[in-house]
């Protein structure tokens, strides 16, 4: 089938290609990549999540936390976030040179999200066209957009989620709704919006889900000229030919998250770029270890495999003898108030004999067995928490009220700020979290990347516009 081709659209008062660079958090998208994407005529996206700042020599300023209390470290994090976001937006805007558009992306579930976003918007008037925001239900996004005269683009994974946001607050600011981003929960990289009713192992066709979003928008009186952004799994546009100029779907914009990682301007380290060329189908794991509580997609490296294995070394217990919990656990714990099933005690003794001698309690009345070294790292990371999430399962932090979730800290999870900062700032990838979408395996087979070719962003956008 011949590729239909794309036509420019009007976005924020200017003509741009309907191509969005996905805003990948914790410095995996920065001014260099987003500015170049805008300069190529598309919509570049600066990440406002743990954004980097630079010293006088242009070197990244490490985000080191000096305060003794978690609450005070959180204030440091917010200051880092605002300073870094402002720096990235200003640099991206300069690189764009008046072409395309610059968006900023924030996660509603990041710690201090509203304060960071407003701090960045206040300091960069006229530079940001739109704000994309997901990972939670960002009801306040519309009022923030109105306050700073920018467009807002909520990220949702179902028509139901958009309807809830529209009814709650977005209907009050319809004129600034720049687009609705449908982020496919099975295909997109990073954190995904799978609901409890959806099976992570049974992906659904995005077409009917996006059509349902459009039907909902029409029912609420929104014109088809308000675009839907298709995010997740987009690689070659000729594969989406039937989505282009389709009256059922209305105006569609396509978002590219994974492909821009392998460009000359991409800020990720060379080791990460090299790794992307080796990803095979099945190597990207949709998992639920994130302390956000959301599913997320990342390359299934030794770091993720270790988390998988840790959760397998897990048994339920009771504080009193009850049901099948008829024997007392005698390894890994102190005290006698750990009643378990006889078969589980045997498993625990086995793990202890293999060196996993420490049993750590979870919020779900289970214990997981780890070695002494991992126990120390878990405790150290939990103690060093700087409040990067609004609610953190790993450390029990909450960024408001009494600053605790009220739940036991979960040793089956990990410090996500440490894992993502480590991956993007050159620490060993095997020991950190490497986000990627399900299409990452295509780098290995797409002839565009053969002979280790790494395109500029401009070359990538030109290639995308051919349909490939």
Annotated CATH topology of the largest domain: TIM Barrel
Q: How far apart are the termini?
A: 13 Å
Number of domains: 2
Largest sheet: 8 strands, parallel
What's the number of helices?
12
- State the assembly state of the protein chains: single chain
- Low-confidence segments: none
| Major β-sheet strand ordering | 3-11-10-8-7-6-5-4
Indicate the structural class. alpha/beta
Strand content: 15-25%
Rg calc? 23 Å
What's the level 1 CATH class of the largest domain? Answer: Alpha Beta
Write the layout of secondary structure elements.
Elements: E1 9-11, E2 14-16, E3 19-21, H1 31-39, E4 43-47, H2 70-96, E5 101-107, H3 113-123, E6 130-134, H4 141-148, E7 151-156, H5 159-168, E8 180-183, E9 190-192, H6 206-219, E10 228-231, E11 252-256, H7 270-276, E12 284-287, E13 295-299, H8 302-312, E14 314-316, E15 327-328, E16 339-340, H9 342-353, E17 358-361, E18 366-370, H10 372-383, H11 416-424, H12 457-465
Parallel strand pairs: 3-11, 4-5, 5-6, 6-7, 7-8, 8-10, 10-11
Antiparallel strand pairs: 1-2, 9-13, 12-13, 14-18, 15-16, 17-18
Helix pairs in contact: 1-2, 2-3, 5-6
What does this structure look like?
The chain is an alpha/beta fold. The protein folds into two domains: 9-287 and 442-465, TIM Barrel (Alpha-Beta Barrel); 302-431, no CATH class. It contains twelve helices and 18 strands. An eight-stranded parallel β-sheet has the order 3-11-10-8-7-6-5-4. Strands 9-13-12 form a three-stranded antiparallel β-sheet, with no helix packed on it. A hairpin with a 4-residue loop joins strand 17 (358-361) and strand 18. Helix 1 (31-39) runs parallel beside helix 2 (70-96), helix 2 (70-96) runs parallel beside helix 3 and helix 5 (159-168) packs parallel to helix 6 (206-219). The longest helix is centred in the first third of the chain and has 27 residues, at 70-96. The mean pLDDT is 94.
């Amino acid at each position: 089938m011949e590729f239909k081709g794309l036509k420019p659209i009007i976005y924020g008062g200017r003509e741009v290609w309907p191509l969005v660079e996905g805003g990948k958090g914790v410095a995996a998208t920065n001014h260099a990549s987003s500015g170049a994407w805008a300069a190529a005529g598309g919509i570049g996206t600066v990440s406002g999540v743990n954004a980097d700042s630079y010293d006088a020599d242009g070197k990244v300023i490490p985000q080191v936390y000096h305060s003794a209390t978690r609450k005070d470290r959180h204030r440091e994090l917010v200051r880092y976030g605002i300073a870094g976001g402002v720096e990235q937006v200003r640099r991206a805007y300069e690189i764009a040179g008046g072409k395309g558009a610059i968006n900023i992306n924030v996660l509603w579930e990041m710690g201090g999200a509203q304060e960071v976003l407003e701090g960045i918007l206040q300091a960069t008037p006229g530079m940001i066209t739109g704000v994309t925001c997901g990972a939670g239900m960002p009801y306040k996004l519309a009022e923030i957009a109105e306050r700073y005269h920018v467009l807002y683009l909520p990220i949702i994974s179902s028509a139901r989620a958009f309807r809830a946001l529209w009814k709650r607050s977005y209907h009050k600011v319809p004129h600034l709704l720049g687009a609705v981003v449908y982020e496919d929960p099975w295909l997109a990289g990073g954190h995904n919006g799978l609901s409890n009713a959806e099976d992570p192992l049974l992906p659904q066709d995005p077409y009917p889900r996006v059509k349902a979003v459009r039907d909902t928008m029409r029912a609420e009186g929104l014109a088809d000229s308000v675009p839907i952004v298709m995010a997740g799994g987009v690689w070659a546009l000729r594969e989406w030919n039937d989505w282009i100029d389709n009256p059922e779907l209305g105006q569609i914009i396509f978002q590219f998250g994974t492909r821009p990682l392998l460009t000359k301007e991409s800020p990720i380290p060379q080791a990460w770029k090299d790794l992307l060329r080796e990803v095979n189908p099945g190597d990207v794991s949709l998992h639920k270890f994130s302390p956000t509580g959301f599913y997320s997609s990342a390359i299934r490296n030794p770091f993720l495999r270790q988390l998988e294995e840790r959760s397998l070394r897990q048994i339920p217990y009771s504080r009193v003898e009850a049901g099948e919990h008829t024997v007392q656990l005698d390894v890994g714990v102190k005290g006698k108030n750990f009643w378990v099933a006889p078969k589980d005690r045997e498993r625990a003794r086995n793990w202890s004999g293999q060196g996993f001698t420490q049993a750590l309690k979870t919020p779900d009345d289970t214990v997981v067995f780890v070695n002494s070294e991992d126990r120390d790292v878990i405790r150290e990371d939990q103690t060093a928490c700087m409040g990067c999430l609004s609610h953190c399962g790993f450390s029990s932090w909450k960024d408001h009220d009494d600053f605790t979730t009220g739940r036991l800290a979960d040793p089956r999870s990990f410090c996500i700020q440490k894992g993502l900062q480590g991956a993007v700032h050159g620490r060993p990838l095997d020991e950190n979290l490497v986000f990627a979408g399900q299409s990452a395996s295509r780098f290995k087979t797409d002839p565009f990347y053969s002979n280790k070719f790494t395109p500029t962003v401009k070359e990538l956008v030109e290639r995308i516009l051919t349909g490939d």
